[in-house]
Model the fold of this input.
Amino acid sequence: MPTFSEWLLPSLPSTMPTNERVFGYSPVNSSPCCRPIRARLDFSALRHNFSVARAYAKETKLWAVIKADAYGHGQFAAARALDGLTDGYALLESEVAVALRERGHRQPILLLEGFFAPEEVARIVQYDLTPVIHSRNQLEMLAAAHSRPAHVYLKIDTGMNRLGFASQDTDAVRQQLERLGICQITLMTHFADADSREGFAAQLEEARQLVDRANLPWSFANSAALMKHPESLGGWARPGIMLYGGSPFGATPGHTAAELGLRPVMTLESRLVAMRTVGAGERVGYGGTWQAKTDTPVGVVACGYADGYPRHAPTGAPIAVAGVLVRTLGRVSMDMIACDLRDVPEAKVGSPVTLWGSGEGGAVDADVLAEAAGTISYELFCALAARVPRIYENL
Done:
């Protein structure tokens, strides 16, 4: 019977040379993919970004957040790249945590939403995992369990209004946990607006009052709080998006990823597969939403919303062709994107294209693209489709 690790990621061996192509094959047979789109994942950039987080953290320990398949970058690869650097890993699913243990990772592992079913408690104890406790239902499951974890995070809702106990219930919940034999308790909250001051100060004040009253260790800071609010640092911080080269402040001038010293881990790249001149007055794409005012050279890129590119990206979204930053034209199709080649006279079929990240085609800030598309870089990374081949570098 396969282990959790083998079941979850059979294609990634425990030892793998750097720059090996992973998942770079057709989903229907073992032939290499010929369509030019691919995602390159540079794990030296992940380690660099972690060092940036470490510099902000000072004496605070760091949970490397690798939930959501490490924000689309591959949770097992990310864990491997950070092994020996991070103080612990934070994720959601206990089965993934078990797979990490089976792969030899011995650092603490935090389950950010705790457990979802009673049978998970025994697994958590067996594999020495740290669950977040955020609901009465979880307390009931703990009370019914034959064995219980040594350490839990007690999540308090200070204004996110999502998960967590009310502040006034902190003492009672702590006492209940201690009656169950759980004495290693860390207070946790999650900031709703750490990238600005609005609402943040009130949440932090409420959380700090709880810490002073309960005299417990605490973990409050996410990426934005880690970088902007050193007063929120406790025993542990939880950097996420910054590890993958996205700014927790989006494309805000002065706080872009590059200005914060962050490097993109994921580069989505492709090539021009066709070119044409669109005459003045002619339209491009479904619905004809873009119309040429003059004769315009247009390139067609092998990438579309079925690859994870945001369908709602409008005309003018940034795209790089042969080292030049240009713009998209018309609607994004399932498999193709049109782009304006007026500034790239040397473009030809086969010219390299960067959709986001930094590659042969040039550089496109994922946060800038996300802002143009009305979303955030987190969604771009997480939405990368399974059909896109991944190239793992410097792992």
Residues 308 and 380 are 7 Å apart (CA to CA). Confidence is low (pLDDT under 50) at residues 1-23. The two ends are 28 Å apart (CA to CA).
